[in-house]
Amino acid sequence: MKEHIKIISRRSTLAKIQAKLVGNTLKSKYPDIKIEYSWIKTIGDIDQKLDISSGSSMGLFTSDISEKVMTSDNNIAVHSWKDYPIVENGYSNIYATIDRADMRDVLILKNYLKNLKNIKTIKIMTSSPRRRYALNTYLKNLIPIQFKNIKFHDLRGNINTRIKKFLDNDADGIVIAKAALDRILNAKSSDINIKNNINNCLREHHWIILPLSLFPTAPGQGAIGIEINNTNQEMIKIINTINVIDIFKNVKKEKEIMSKYGGGCSQKIGVSIWEKNNVTIQSINGKTDENKVLQSFEITERAATESENNTTTKENAFPISKKEQNIFTRINKNKNNQISKIENAIIYITRKNTLFNKPRFNNSCILWTSGIKSWRASCKSGYWIHGSSDSMGESDIESLFSLIQKKREIIKLTFKNNKNKNSNDINTYELNNPIFPSDIECRKEFYWMSSFAFEAAINKFPNIQNKKHACGMGNTYNKLLSIINNKTNLTCYLDYKSWKKTLK
Hints:
4 domains, alpha/beta
């Protein structure tokens, strides 16, 4: 057993934090091992004029470090895995990873934009072709301001340098990996001045967490890669004991997919893979060098208890039409006075219907939506949204805390539900008098938009509880899972449309 390990990484604040995360993980597993750190400057750090978006940029931040794993059997290298080349060098490789940070990107927009309704050009700082393509494609529907085009400015440097350039420049926006912000803000060892600069920037300007369904990231973003000499079998065995297998598998798959299109930072393609509710979700978005548009958001793997093959016909499913989806009578409630008094809270917009009376929100509040549809609807009504749960459930809201550096009260705008006793809920409408098709008990499979609708149905027709059921990825899934006796009868989908496509 080795008594001494040297971890080699870049000199940036973020790189040091990531290296120490690996070191601390090793120490928790092997308390007697001595951990030494070595910080070096890579060619990408030294030459700030190099074009990191070109095809020749692969390895600019890793190759100098990789060479060091050959000099001693005690050496390992720690990288931001997204920077590591897809093509192996032949003498070393990534053999393990630890817990992945948030994969998503953060777009920071200067606050003066909130006073504008129209602007000819928005200037955004990013060197990534992937980010540029996605912003050009989707940003217009995610902010309540009309603009004709986006002008992009190249950006280099560590996080602190990038933030300073953004604040000192006439640019309107900047894109930064959320993992970088989270790790610096949450690390006790971080430079207090860098922390303050980031916190001040986030506090004074409007930030948006970009959803993975539309903005998948660079393969490996948020993941840490641990590189070892291929011949160093003892070190490989040690490092494998701290490897998080599912994350390792996902990043390898992301890299594999990207390799089909050439890989590297020059690609206009994002690939993200993650798990939720015992399924694997994959998002791919971008454009190839041949101008082929890639756009997919799907479940690629399911647990053994869930079947991928659906034998149900449309005639035997519910709901199969817009009319069948609208089973309730809706009564809107004006809670604008109550809403306008809320300060320094996270306001969770569960559905677009909750904004029927167009409430006014205090500028100190953070606005978050349940999905992309409610986000776009909110923007049409003039609201500046900070992000969305991407239809993955309310637990995602906790990802905000790192950017605001404290917990805030979460207040949901939702509908009246007698079974929900959450005092923070504000019920902006009621759902009454559910009407179901006369043959509902003959249907074989059901998709539920909410647990409220499911419970209303089984109260009237108890026998349907034992049939096949489906729903989205969020709270409805967890609620139905707690009610349905046979868990194999419940399958989750990304949305209603993806479920309907499986019907015969």
